[in-house]
Write a structure and sequence with these properties.
It is a single chain. By secondary structure, the protein is of the alpha/beta class. It has 2 domains: 267 residues, 3-Layer(aba) Sandwich (Rossmann fold); 37 residues, no CATH class. It contains 10 helices and 14 strands. It has a 6-stranded mixed β-sheet with strand order 8-9-10-6-11-12, sandwiched between helices. It has a 4-stranded mixed β-sheet with strand order 3-7-4-5. Helix 4 crosses helix 5. It starts with 6 loop residues before the first strand and ends with a helix.
């Protein structure tokens, strides 16, 4: 299970780990009001005016205007700028855009893994009742993150890795079995992770997130997946998509993708990002258009049936024009 960053503090000679959410974090047991058009079902996640800045070349971050402590100017990059979204039960949101547009950074903000003052805005999750008062444990019960490059845990078996997803929410071996079955790796559950292929390790990371949010065979909460299909065979992609759709019935999914055609086939909603900003957000069939994606990727795109692919003919014509000039 992904763990929020924490900073140690000293009190009465003891070192205690105290975690503070990166942004204004709230939990709601009541139905939440949408920031945009009201969805058909109650929202599970609301993000309001989310932002994230990274320092460059080792410079310190010093506030909202990029100044550093000590008076010297800090170099910063705005990875996420003023993004707002609402995600309801049953919805799958695909975030697309060029490399470096802020997709992964936005997921980290939604997961509350970034610390202030770099991150800003408000994140609100609808809470699943839990006996824990720990904010980190309460957060683990409502969201799970699959990073783009899951950490290798060579000493553990596939089953043990997936079991880690239950760390904050309580043991449940049937949930582990269901998760392994959903990604097609139940038969390889006792193998060490370092003997599995890269694609299989990615599927194990997805299974761990499935197990984390499993509630007696019913999904729930919000799955956050960064490039979840990277290195996975097409047949297994179809299996995982089916599992995502099933789990989204009682929860919701946010995923990033470099394949707009696949994103349009999977998602109910889509967000197109460019230079840290959301330039479009709405129904996937409307947002993921060749025209808008051409702007986002700075390269011609065209529609082929239900798919959107690079327009190689237009790209070649543009390149020939540049060579002549």
């Amino acid at each position: 299970m992904d763990r929020p960053r924490h900073r140690p503090s000293s009190r009465r000679g003891r070192h205690r780990a105290r975690w503070r959410p990166c942004v204004s974090l709230a939990f709601a047991e009541r139905p939440m009001e949408s920031l945009t058009a009201p969805p058909a079902r109650a929202p599970l996640l609301i993000g309001e005016n989310l932002g994230l800045r990274y320092g460059l070349h080792g410079s310190s971050y010093g506030g909202s205007h990029g100044g550093s402590r000590g008076g010297s100017a800090a170099q910063v990059i705005d990875a996420v700028v003023g993004v707002s979204l609402t995600l309801a039960e049953g919805e799958i949101l695909a975030i697309v855009g060029a490399n470096g547009c802020g997709k992964s950074s936005l997921l980290r903000v939604l997961a509350c893994l970034e610390t202030a003052p770099r991150a800003s805005g408000r994140v609100e999750y609808r809470e699943i009742r839990t006996s824990s008062r720990s904010v980190a444990h309460r957060l683990a019960a409502v969201r799970a993150l699959v990073p783009q490059r899951p950490e290798a845990t060579a000493a553990l078996t596939a089953r043990q890795v997936v079991r880690l997803g239950r760390f904050s929410v309580g043991p449940d071996e049937s949930a582990v079995d269901r998760a392994l079955g959903d990604v097609g790796l139940l038969a390889r559950a006792e193998l060490p992770v370092n003997t599995l292929s890269g694609g299989e390790r990615q599927r194990i990371a997805i299974a761990r997130a499935f197990a984390q949010l499993d509630r007696g065979g019913v999904g729930g909460g919000v799955l956050l997946l960064d490039e979840p299909f990277s290195g996975i065979d097409p047949g297994e992609v179809a299996r995982i998509v089916t599992a995502l759709r099933m789990r989204a019935r009682a929860g919701a999914v946010v995923l990033t993708s470099h394949d707009p055609g696949l994103a349009r086939a999977i998602a109910t909603h889509a967000m197109v990002m460019k230079e840290g900003r959301a330039i479009a957000f709405g129904a996937a069939g409307e947002v993921l258009s060749a025209k808008l994606l051409s702007e986002a990727y700075r390269s011609p795109m065209r529609e082929v049936g239900d798919w959107i692919v690079p327009d190689l003919t237009a790209s070649q014509s543009t390149e020939r024009g540049r060579m002549r000039s």
